[in-house]
Amino acid sequence: MEEDSKKDHRALLNPGEENELEVFGYRSHTLRSALCFIASVLTCGVLWLVFFWRPQWRVWTNCIPCPLQEADTVLLRTTDEFQRYIRKKVICLCLSTLKFPISKNPGDPLVADRHSVINKAILKPELKLRCIQVQKIRYVWDNLEKQFQKVGLLEDSNSCYDIHHTFGLGLTSEEQEIRRLVCGPNAIEVEIQPIWKLLVKQVLNPFYVFQAFTLTLWLSQGYIEYSVAVIILSVISIILSVYDLRQQSVKLHNLVEDHNKVQVTVNVKGKGLQELESCHLVPGDVLILPGKLSLPCDAVLINGNCVVNEGMLTGESIPVTKTPLPQSENTMSWKSHSLEDYRRHVLFCGTEVIQVKPSGQGPVRAVVLQTGYNTAKGDLVRSILYPRPLNFKLYSDAFKFIVFLACLGVLGFFYALGVYMYHEASPRDTTTMALLLLTVTVPPVLPAALTTGIVYAQKRLKKKKIFCISPQRINMCGQINLVCFDKTGTLTEDGLDLWGTVPTADNCFQEVHSFASGKALPWGPLCAAMASCHSLILLDGTVQGDPLDLKMFEGTAWKMEDCNVEYCTFGMSDSNVILKPGPTASQSPVAAITVLCQFPFSSALQRMSVVAQLAGEDRFHAYMKGAPETVARFCRSETVPKNFPQELRNYTMQGFRVIALAHKALKMGMLSEVANLARDEVESELTFLGLLIMENRLKKETKPVLKELSEARIRTVMITGDNLQTAITVARNSGMVPRGSQVILVEANEPKEFAPASVTWQLVENQEDGGVRTETYINVGNSSVPDVEGGSSYHFAMSGKSYQVIFQHFYSLLPKILVNGTIFARMSPGQKSSLVEEFQKLNYYVGMCGDGANDCGALKMAHAGISLSEQEASVASPFTSKTANIKCVPHLIKEGRAALVSSFGVFKYLTMYGIIQFIATLLLYWQLQLFGNYQYLMQDVAITLMVCLTMSSTQAYPKLAPYRPAGQLLSPPLLLSVFLNSCFTCIVQICAFFFVKQQPWYFEVYRCSECLLANQSDFSTNVNLRGKNWTGNATLTPGSILSFESTTLWPIATINCITIAFIFSKGKPFRKPIYTNYIFSFLLVSALGLTIFILFSDFQDIYRGMEFIPTSTSWRVSILVAALVQFCVAFFVEDAILQNRELWVWIKKEFGFYSKSQYKSWQKKLAEDATWPPTHRTDYSGDGENGFYTNLGYESPEQLPREKGEFRAQSTEQHFFTRL
C-alpha cells in the first residue's frame, strides 16, 4: 500500500523527450503554512528569501506529500544532472461556466475524437478537470492513465481515416468551446516583463543580497566613498542587465505578436464557413486556405496542394510544395503511414503560404494539429525562453571558490570575535569589527568584474559581424576542441554549376553531354525528367525554388508558364504549371509538359517524384530524381548499368554532386486515378535514365580556415546530407583529411531474417582491389582485426544509415569510431543532433557550423552553434555570422580563449586582492586596529576597481595556439598560484609587521594617542622630521587607525595588488601582450607611481588625508625593496614554473597523470591496440543468447535518445552565483 502511495506521488512528464520532468504531488497544510509565515516575519523576510532561491524548500516546509490525483501543488524536477526544481499550483477548470448544456453522463464523450485526452480528463458529473502550466505548455490530469498529459494538439494515434472523417467536416461550435477552455488560446504570447519585476529578480540575486549586507555595514562604519562607488557600479550593472533582458523580451514579443492577430476562415460543422481570429483556433478545426497567409498553427493538409516558404524553420527561403494526407482506411497512426515523409503533409506554424492549388473538391483545407506553444514556432520560441542549461566547469568551480573565500571570512569572523572579546571591547564594537572582517574576503565587485571579459569579447565579435544571443557561451568557446561543419553552403558554395549529363541506353552509360560545350541538351526521357521533376513554382512571373532544381531546369532551356485553356485537359486545376521548350532548347516533338501530381523531396527519403502528362498524349508519366543509390533501388535491375557503382564512384571521387533520374509510363488514363495514386505505386519498377553531374566548388576561405584549425589541434568533422564519396572527396580537397591519411569506410547493415547486424570495414583506396574479405563471428567490443600500415593516421567515414545501425546494434563500437570519425554523410537532421551529443559524451567541447537548413537541432545541441543563415530559425542558435563563410569559427575560438583567460585572470586577481587585504587586516586586528578609509579607498577604487574593469580588454592573440587554456579553476597551476602568492604575501606582511616593531623610533601609537597629540614636536624629532608641523589626523581619528604598522603594511599591500594585476595579465599565446592594452597599462603605471609618491612624500596634507605616520627614509626604501623582491619572486614562480606548459606536461608524464576525458582514454587504448583499426572484414553482432546486441534506448533514427545514466554534455547558461 505504501509503495502504491509512493508511486502515485510521483510521475514523469514528457518521458523520453529533451524536456523530461519528474512531477511530485503535494497538498497544502494550514498549520505548516502558518508556522512558515511566522518564521518569515521573525527573520525579517530572510526565510522568505531562502524560499525564493530554493522553491523546493518552500514546498517541503509548507506542504505534505500526497498522490498526484489529490495534489493542489506540484513540484517538478528536471531529470538532467542539474536536478532543478519548479513549483506549480494545480489549476481547476470548470466546464459548467460554458453557456450551453453539457451531458453529465459518464458514458457520453464530450469531444468526438475517441483518442482525445479531454474525454479522460473531465470528471463527471462535476464537469471539472485539473491542469498545470509548465514552460508555456498546459498538461491535464488523465483520470484513466493517472498522469498529466499534454493538451493543445491532436493525438498522434489518429489514423489518416480519423483525420479525414472525424475532423474533415469541422468541429461543432460546442466542441470548439470545450476545446478552447481546455486547451487555452492559440497564441504564442511573450510577456514583456514589467521593469519592476526584472529589477526585483536582479536585486534578489544571492550575490547582490550579500553585497547589500556588506555595503550597509561599511556605510555604518563611515566607509562612504568606496561603498558609493560600488553602489554606483552595481546600479549600472543591474540597469544594464534589466535593459538587456527587457530589450530581448520586447524583441521576442514583436517577433511573435503578429502571429496572434491573423484573421482565418474555419468550417464549423452544421454552420458552414466562419471567420474568426486565429487565437480562437483549436486542434481539430478545419482551416480554409484562400491564398497567401502566415500560418497561425500547425495543420495537416487534407485537400488541395499548396506551396509554403519554410525559411522560419529551415533557414532556407525555398518554396516547398505540400500535398494532402492520403485517404487510407487502415488504422495505423497517420505519421507511421507516411513514415519519415509525414512532414510533406504538414503546414507548420510561422511558415508562409505563398501559393494554393485547389483540387476539384473545393478549396484547400487543412485540419489544425497543434496550437500555441505546441507548434513548431512555439517550440522555437520556448527554446529561446528556456534555453538548454550549460554546465561549464568555470562557473561551478567559481562557485566553490567563493564558498572557500566565504569560509575564510567566517574564520576571520571568529578570530575577530576572539581578539576583541579578549581585549574586553564593547559588544557593539566586537560584533561590528567581526562582521567587517567577514566581508573582506569576498570582493563586492566580483560579479561586474567576471562579466567584463565577456562584454569586451562580445563587442569585438560584433565588429567581426558575429552576433551572440547567449553571452555566457563565449567563455565556453575557449574550450572548443572539435568543430562539426555542414558541407553544402558552409564548406562549399551554395550554388551548383551544371557539368554534364550521362544518359543510359540498352543498360549502358552513353557519351557524356557537357554543358560547357554550349550545345542544347538533346530531347529524350532524361530531358523530360529534368524539365518536370522539381518543386519549382512560378511566382509573380519568376521561377523560384531550390537552387539545385533551378540549375537543373535552366540546363534544359525550357520555360515555365501558367496553365491555359489549350493545355488544361482532363479537368485540371488552373493552378497547374505548364513547361514548354524555350527558344534555345533542342527540338522537341512535345509542345508542353504539365505536372499533375508531386511527391516532394525530403532529406529522410533522399528522393522526389512527379506525375506528368506530355501534350498530345493520353497516358501519364512518372519521373523520379534523387540520390543515385536511392533511385537505383527503385529501378528495374535490368535498366541499371552494370558499371553503375564504378561510374558513380568515378564522379563522386572527383567531388561532383551526382543526381540520378528515372522514369516509367503509368497505365491509367483518368485524372481522378492520378489524384488517388500512392507514392509506393509511382515509385516502383522504374527505368533508369542516367546521371546529372553538378559541380560544387569549395569556398575560397575553407582550406585556410581548416588548415588553421588543424595547426591548432582542433578536430574538424563533416556532417552532411550529401553523397558519401562526394563528402570524402571534399574532405580530401579541403584538407580535412590530410594527404597520405587513410579513409576507412564503415558500412553497417540491419539484421535480416537469418543474419545478425553487420559492420564492414573497407579501405577507400583499396575498394577496387577485389581482395578477399575475411568474415568472422565475434563478440562486439573484442574484435580482432589485421593491423593497418600507417594506422596512426586514419579517418572513418560512414553514412547516416550505418550510423543508425551502429547506434542500435553496435553501441559499444561507437566511441571507438567517433574518436577517429571525420566524414558523416547522408545524415538526417535528427542524426546530426544525435552525433553532436555522442561527441559531447566523449567529453569533447563541440562547435557546430552550418547554414541553418537542416542543422537547427545540431546548432542548439552543440556547446557553440554558429549559424551562417540570417533566417528566423537561426534565432535558436547561440551565434550567428553575417559573413556566410567559416572564417567566423577561428574568430570565435580566439575570442572565447581570450575571454576565458581574462575571466581566470580577474578571478585570481580578486581572490588575491581579498586575501592580501584579509592578511593585513588580521595583523592589524591583533592590536585592535584597521586601515583608514582613504587607505582602503586607494586600494579599492584607484587600483582594484579600475584594474578589474580594464584587465579584460586585452585583445585576442591573432594566431591560434596548438593547445587550449585551462578550463578549470580548481586545477593545480591555478591553486598553486593562489596558494604560493598567499604565502609570499603572508611572509612579507608578517615580517614587515614584526620588523617595524624592532625599529629604534617605534612606539605603540595606539596606546599613546593622547601623548602623541600633546608632544607633537618631540614625536617629529624622534622620526627625524624636525621643523614639520605634523598634527596627523588624530583629533578626527580614533587610536585604531594611526600606527606604524598600518603605515608599513599599506604600501606593501597596495604595491602587491598592483604587481599581481600585472603578473596575472598574461598575454601570449591567448591574448596580445599587456602593453597593447593601453588603458590598463596606463592605470597600472599610474597606480604604482602614485603609491611610491605617497610612500616617499613628506607632505603634511597627504599624511593627514591618508592617516599615516612619517617614518625614516631608510625604512620606506626597505618597504619598497621588500615589495619589489616579492614581485620578482612571484613573477618568476608564475611565469617560469606555474605557466610553464612543458614543465607540467613533463610532470604529468613522469607521475603517470592522464586526462580524464573519455576521448583521451579511448585514443590511448586504441593507440595501444595493435588490432585497431580493422580493415577488409565484416563483423557481426553476437552478444547474448539470441546472438544479437541491441541498444534498448534506441527508438528511431529521427529522434535518437540520450542515455540517462551516462555522462551528459557540459552545459548552463545561469551565472554561478545564481546557484547559491
UniProtKB/TrEMBL annotation:
Keywords: ATP-binding, Glycoprotein, Magnesium, Membrane, Metal-binding, Nucleotide-binding, Translocase, Transmembrane, Transmembrane helix
Cell compartment(s), UniProt: Membrane
Catalytic activity: ATP + H2O = ADP + phosphate + H(+)
InterPro entries: ATPase_P-typ_cation-transptr_N (IPR004014), ATPase_P-typ_cyto_dom_N (IPR023299), ATPase_P-typ_P_site (IPR018303), ATPase_P-typ_TM_dom_sf (IPR023298), ATPase_P-typ_transduc_dom_A_sf (IPR008250), ATPase_P-type_domA (IPR059000), HAD-like_sf (IPR036412), HAD_sf (IPR023214)
Membrane topology: Multi-pass membrane protein
One protein family per Pfam: Cation_ATPase
Primary location class: membrane
Transmembrane region(s): 31-53, 203-220, 226-245, 398-422, 434-457, 906-928, 934-953, 974-996, 1048-1065, 1077-1097, 1117-1138
Swiss-Prot/TrEMBL GO biological process terms: intracellular calcium ion homeostasis
Residue ranges constituting the P-type ATPase A domain according to the UniProt record: 262-384
EC number of the protein: 7.2.2.-
Limits of the P5B-type ATPase N-terminal domain: 17-142
EC top class, as a word: translocase
Segments of skewed composition (Polar residues): 1209-1220
CDD domains in alphabetical order: P-type_ATPase_cation
One GO term describing the cellular component: late endosome membrane
Domain Cation-transporting P-type ATPase N-terminal: 168-213
SUPFAM superfamilies named among the record's database cross-references: Calcium ATPase, transduction domain A (SSF81653), Calcium ATPase, transmembrane domain M (SSF81665), HAD-like (SSF56784), Metal cation-transporting ATPase, ATP-binding domain N (SSF81660)
Domain of life (superkingdom): Eukaryota
GO MF entries: ATP binding; ATP hydrolysis activity; ATPase-coupled monoatomic cation transmembrane transporter activity; metal ion binding; P-type ion transporter activity; polyamine transmembrane transporter activity
Family in the record: Belongs to the cation transport ATPase (P-type) (TC 3.A.3) family. Type V subfamily.
Name of protein: Cation-transporting ATPase
Organism of provenance: Loxodonta africana
Source lineage: Eukaryota, Metazoa, Chordata, Craniata, Vertebrata
